[in-house]
Amino acid sequence: MNSDGGKLEVVVVGGGMITHDQILPSLYHLQRLGRIGGIKICALNSAPLTALARSERLGEAFPRHTFEPFPSLAEPPDRMFPDLFREVIAQLPARNLVVAAVPDHLHDQVMRAALERDQHVLCVKPLVPTYRQAAEIEQIARQKGLLVAVEYHKRFDRRSLEARGQYRKGRFGQFRLGEARLLEPYYYRHSNFQNWFTKENSDPFTYVGCHYIDLVYFITGLRPVEVSVRGVEGRFPNGNIGWLWSAGTVIWENGATMTLLNGLGYPDAGPGTCDQGLTMYCEGPDCGAIIHHDDQYRGVSHGYIDNKSGAMFRYVSPDYMRLVPWEGDGLRPIGYGYDSIEAIVEAARRVNAAAEGLEGQAALEARQMVLQEIDQRGILATPANSFINELVTEAARMSIGADGRWVQILYEPTPHVQWKSA
Asked: Which of 40, 186, 249, 422 sees the fewest Cβ atoms within 10 Å?
């Protein structure tokens, strides 16, 4: 059991951009609220940990809050520690929390290391590249009574929750045609992305397009059945080749069609920092309906006297992740980025609380009952209730490597993907 009144001790594996921008601010605030205890962050080398420790943004928002770095900040930044995360996880008492915030192709090994040591897992999206891996992760976690949650934070956007509630009441009729876009800024090419975002590991459709695949499924409950993705190659500054742009089409089980545009190329000085949004055209018995989310522009724009935000004019989204003044010390995180992390942490604590005072099989069954409720509710993404995402990822990776050839997703007798016959 956890010590200190049910607080979760946390190990974050990965010290990159998502840790700085969303994960660590959320964890610091939950620590401030007394819901989690200590925070350890493990990275491949000391460089990203030093950047986190020296972050002015985090220092201003969370005075007196720190994390324990692995490796030590005293280690030279060119010394690598590829297996240190296993040692750090092994030191964590059972049924605490491991956050997998590493490049996509490394998620599986971090999660398995955590589950082997009886830890709950929060994993950034997408979970794993194949359905088989997702099914194995689900089985291991279920047998041990552990939570594995995928951090699809757009599920916690109030726009998405409202759309889900109204769609499932029948107020939009049936989804029939849609389009989505999510283009990240050009400067991603100069980040650590250039070291791992190569053709054999990922592509824009599976890395960011997955948000909107998951969101359409979250809103409608419809499953995807066919996928086609074309990629546009490009060269990173270090010479590595990757898919830097992609255009995908997904067919859903009711015949609805959706297109997705993704890439690493939105202008760095553009007002939106990225370009993203979703439009879903629907129909009823004798009328049309629409769900339209402009996720780039949320109705707030600022013109500054400096360039600290990368441009002097910006669309400012208060909805994803902002650090704002509050009644306590420093700043507090607001937005669905924080709400998502908070929900997963609270779910893990709820699983643990269900087994308080119980031992052995009785404790395991109590935890499994809560996990089943989480799966069935379908708000948190788990391997059991969001595996359509892994099927789409698997199909997309096949298709993009074959110039957009169509791939089918079949759910019976066992979920799998295969080439669509001519």
From this structure: 422
- Say how far apart CA 47 and CA 44 lie, in whole Å: 9
- Please give the pLDDT value at position 46: 98
287 burial level (CB within 10 Å; 0-12, 13-18, 19+):
exposed
pLDDT for the residue numbered 113: 98
Structure tokens at 59: 């220092």
Distance CA 418, CA 292 (A): 32
| Neighbour tally for 330: CB within 10 Å | 18
- For residues 406-414, give the mean pLDDT: 97
Q: Which of 49, 53, 51 is nearest to 70 (CA)?
A: 49
Instruction: Tell me the two tokens of residue 33.
Output: 């609220």
Q: Taking the C-alpha atoms of 54, 58, 62 and 63 in order, what is their torsion angle to the nearest 10 degrees?
A: 30
DSSP state letters, 129-166: SSHHHHHHHHHHHHHHT--EEEE-GGGGSHHHHHHHHH
- For 140, other C-beta atoms within 10 Å of its C-beta total 16
Residue 5 has pLDDT above 50, yes or no: no
Full set of structural domains in the chain with CATH: 8-154+328-386 (3.40.50.720), 160-319+391-419 (3.30.360.10)
